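Example record used in the benchmark description.
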Amino acid sequence: MLLQQLRINPEWRDEDPGFGRPSPGRSWWFAGGVLVLIGVAAGTAAFMLRGRGPRVEIEAATAVAPSSSSDTGSTAILQATGYVTAKRQATVSAKIAGTLTEVLVDEGDHVKAGQVLARLESTAQKASLAQSEAQLQAARALYVQSKAQLRQEYRDLVRNEDLVARHLISMQALETARTLVETQVSQVESQRRQVDLALAMLKGAQVALDQTTVRAPFSGVVIAQPAQEGEVTSPMSPGSDPKGSGVATIVDMDSLEIEVDVNEAYINRVQPDQPAEAVPDAYPDWAIPAHVIATIPTADRTKATVKVRIGIDQKDPRILPDMGVRVSFLDQASKKRGPRRS
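Model output (structure tokens):
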């Protein structure tokens, strides 16, 4: 009953045409008030935030030329990665089987050509050498005795020839004396050969004794020394692992160079004696002057690359075998320069 009483009387709508619609005057006042409030809020926010915004600094930009590999403006036309290798490296082992009694070097030692690295048990070799020396002395003594006997036989021959001339002895005695001289000449020659044989045996015994001493074949640095005193060592056989055998591994640091693999599609950009720069992975700010030594005339079909040898123009103790290196091949007009250090 109450809801029915709240219904709008249709007669009111007919009597008042503006019923249910806002009047135009009130609409303009409402919109104006909203705009004024928005303007006041914006002004207040601008005043509060004035001076707090980020400062923007403008600097002049300088144009940079294309990347170059040196201060002279030389341009890298190709880059490749590789490793430092030693062209002169040897794992030194004993020439005979034996027990190590001394190891005189350690990893990191600098050695000279001929320097003793280790010694093996040499009792048997020393005994053989002493025996050979005794045999040589005996052979020389017999040789001297044979020559003395020859001289005596020759003097007897001369006397017999004189006696035969005076008809004091027969011709048979003279012929006997001649036979004795010829026989003694052969004996002297035989004893001389015995001396040569004994001398050769002595040299062999000396070589056997020398083989118990392991020496450095060239000057360099010991990078591996796996042998220990008391171990039984033997000559390395073909195909054996050099890192796990031998007395010591020596590297000639003056023979270091770089080997890189160049994609075969760009190998035509590499020429002999071409200037280059090598940057070790361990020293990324150090550019080492280098040059192309040669291109190995074969390709790796699995990697589609060609190996290139790079020579290092300036040696440095920091350059070590098996270091990773990035090589930039420069254009032929580039000039070699000194190393750029950080």
